[in-house]
Specification:
It comes from Kribbella yunnanensis. By secondary structure, the chain is α/β, with parallel strands linked by helices. Helix content is 37%, strand content 15%.
Length: 382
């Protein structure tokens, strides 16, 4: 089935790093395959599936950050917009906003029908930026995600056609249905915010966030995410079943129409970049850093875990704690921020030992136990 036509606009496409490939001239566009791009060209495309704009523009980080009043006001608008769609899950929504402001990626894992994809799409639609959704299937190829170089007969040279990862927010639905080879296509983009195709590296536009969903109980036709990919997600959340009152409100508000259809963006990508700068200015004392290192280190020494959390987990924990403090209108991180985020940030990275499985203790239970056992830092001035 042919893809929809694309519209060409003038934008700066991210140039490859010097010495990492050869730029080729030409900027032809193929309606059958999508936008044609060569390194350094000025081309963007409009995705007409659902009216979501697809951009391939690289944006340099802003020189200055915003302030905490702006952050609280914008975060409140995003929170209210999402809660119009997701009923009765304020804690899950808060973690999603925290991961967004901490420049992380979010894994939503739960049973079918509880609103995983709805949450991902609601967060993406609340921001006026480029969004692409990838429905992961067993026949999905890595080039469908990263893009592919196609030979152009007119200019007799190869041209790069960007894949679905070239967007500000990438929604990966049922990510564990794709093969490990296809899942691995996201590794570079999630960690380094870039894509390398045929020895040429393309920078991704900022802000960049991957929101993936997966079903943990259905094993037929699925491929478990490898530890290397799970470690790249800053946090994992589970939706859980709604309370009866929230489910009744859902019937009243969602039974007749799609709540996403009436949802409007309440901020944009440039404003999110300013808020990210504000989050990065939040102070973390040495004692809080030592507490985070001690908590992550406890996962490596625990007899209930056969795989502890990585140093990347410590970085993600501190970044998420900064965002949580900023959302609370604080310019400094408290140990409470580390404790509240320990389970969503660490539990998907660790592997319980066989004895813990036999005892009915999951990763979240073990991490929660470590939080209660690791002593809090003493109050001191840095």
């Amino acid at each position: 089935m042919p893809l929809p036509d694309v519209e060409r606009r003038t934008r700066d496409f991210p140039r490859p790093y010097a010495g990492r490939g050869t730029e080729t001239p030409g900027n032809e566009t193929s309606a059958a395959l999508g936008p044609t791009l060569t390194p350094g060209e000025n081309v963007s495309a409009v995705n007409q599936w659902g009216g979501l704009r697809v951009s391939t523009t690289a944006t340099s980080p802003l020189a200055g950050g915003g302030d905490f009043d702006e952050l609280s006001e914008v975060a409140g608008r995003v929170r209210r917009a999402i809660e119009q769609v997701i009923e009765g899950k304020p804690d899950v929504v808060e973690v999603a906003i925290t991961v967004l402001l901490a420049e992380g990626h979010l894994l939503i894992e739960d049973v079918p029908g509880v609103g995983k994809t709805m949450l991902a799409k609601a967060l993406a639609k609340s921001i006026d930026c480029s969004v692409r959704r990838i429905q992961f299937t067993p026949d999905l190829l890595p080039s469908d995600i990263t893009g592919v170089s196609v030979f152009n007969q007119e200019i007799r040279d190869f041209e790069f056609k960007p894949g679905a990862v070239f967007a500000n927010i990438v929604v990966g639905d049922e990510i564990n249905r794709a093969s490990p080879k296809t899942q691995a296509a996201l590794l570079e983009s999630m960690e380094e915010r870039q894509v390398t195709v045929d020895t040429t590296t393309y920078l991704l536009e900022a802000p960049f966030m991957v929101i993936a969903t997966q079903n943990p109980i259905e094993m037929e036709g699925t491929y478990p995410l490898p530890e290397a990919q799970r470690d790249r997600f800053m946090a994992r959340v589970s939706m859980g079943y709604p309370e009866p009152a929230a489910e009744l409100r859902m019937l009243d508000g969602h039974a007749a129409d799609d709540p996403l259809a009436n949802m409007q963006a309440v901020t944009d990508g440039q404003q999110i970049l300013r808020l990210v700068k504000t989050v990065q200015s939040v102070h973390v004392s040495e004692s809080v850093k030592e507490y985070a290192v001690g908590l992550v280190g406890a996962t490596r020494r625990s007899q209930e875990l056969r795989l502890g959390a990585s140093p990347r987990a410590t970085l993600h924990l501190i970044r998420a704690a900064r965002a949580a403090a900023a959302l609370d209108s604080r310019e400094f991180v408290l140990p409470d921020d580390i404790q509240e985020l320990a389970v969503p940030v660490l539990s998907h990275r660790v592997l319980p030992a066989a004895e813990a499985h036999l005892g009915g203790r999951g990763a979240a239970d073990i991490v929660a136990g470590l939080v209660s056992s690791v002593p809090l830092p003493r109050t001191r001035r840095d």
